[in-house]
Amino acid sequence: MNAKTFIIRLIGLIAIALAGSFLYAVTFHVMVAMNLIPAELAEKAYGTILTHKTTLVWLGCVAISFISIFIKESWRYVFYLSPLYAPPLFAAAFTLIQQ
To answer: Percent of the chain, pLDDT > 90?
Structure first.
């Protein structure tokens, strides 16, 4: 892999990671709007716990995504795009399990 390819993939990773954090925020507000998370709990401890756990998932996905930059096979996109889909899925699953 040359430097140009690495920089392009790294910029893509940064964009995907930022989009994933935005998508988590949208997911959280949609769950509050659908009353899956009561608004009182979203402002208190449950919202903080959910955001903390989802942040840890997001950081792990960013690390996995960075490692996937160096994979040459086509299945690397599963790991490369993980910061985009894993945090909202985790938040939804964690919320549904807690109910």
So the answer is: 59
Q: What are phi and psi of 43, to 5 degrees?
A: -85, -15
Alpha-carbon torsion, ordered 48, 54, 55, 59, to 10 deg: 170
* Residue showing tokens 């299945």: 75
DSSP structure class, residue 43: H
* Residue 73, helix vs strand vs coil: coil
Among candidate residues 19, 17, 28, the one with its CA nearest the CA of residue 89? 28
Q: pTM, whole model, 2 decimals?
A: 0.86
User: How much helix, strand and coil, in percent to the nearest 5, is found in the chain?
Assistant: 85, 0, 15
